[in-house]
Amino acid sequence: MTGIPTAGSIVVADLIGDAVVRIPAGATVADAARVLVDAGVGAVVVGDDARPAAVLSERDVVRVVSEGRNPADVPVAEVASTNLVWCEDTDSVDAVATRMTDRYIRHILVENGGELAGIVSARDLLGVYAGDADAVDA
């Protein structure tokens, strides 16, 4: 026994790094797309509430473009996801990965004490599992 936890048993609080990127509720999809690119993230929280009601992702931006709509004319509030999926910051990577897979989502909001603590992406989880696989191969 090495005492090193497996990837799946790591708590998601350990994956939360940078502050959550936010955009104003009155922003357009074009504004949000610029923020996504500038911040290098795949999703942004809409508004400043401690417990947000909407998130806009890259998929939402692509959907607007694929419909032939002008992103500069579409308010984020019109297309942002409001059916948000949350996890606790103490949940394991395995539990969160299962929840995300079951719901077909790429981002999950992480809460601590009822407030937003961060966002974990499928890419974050993949990095944990890839690191675990590398350790096994070494």
UniProtKB/TrEMBL annotation:
Molecular function terms, GO-annotated: kinase activity
UniProt keyword annotation of Kinase present: yes
Kinase among keywords: yes
Pfam families assigned: CBS (PF00571)
Residue span, CBS domain: 16-74, 80-136
InterPro entries noted in UniProt: CBS_dom, CBS_dom_sf, Diverse_CBS-Domain
Keywords: CBS domain, Kinase, Transferase
Transmembrane segments: none
Identification of the protein by name: Histidine kinase
Organism, scientific name: Mycolicibacterium insubricum
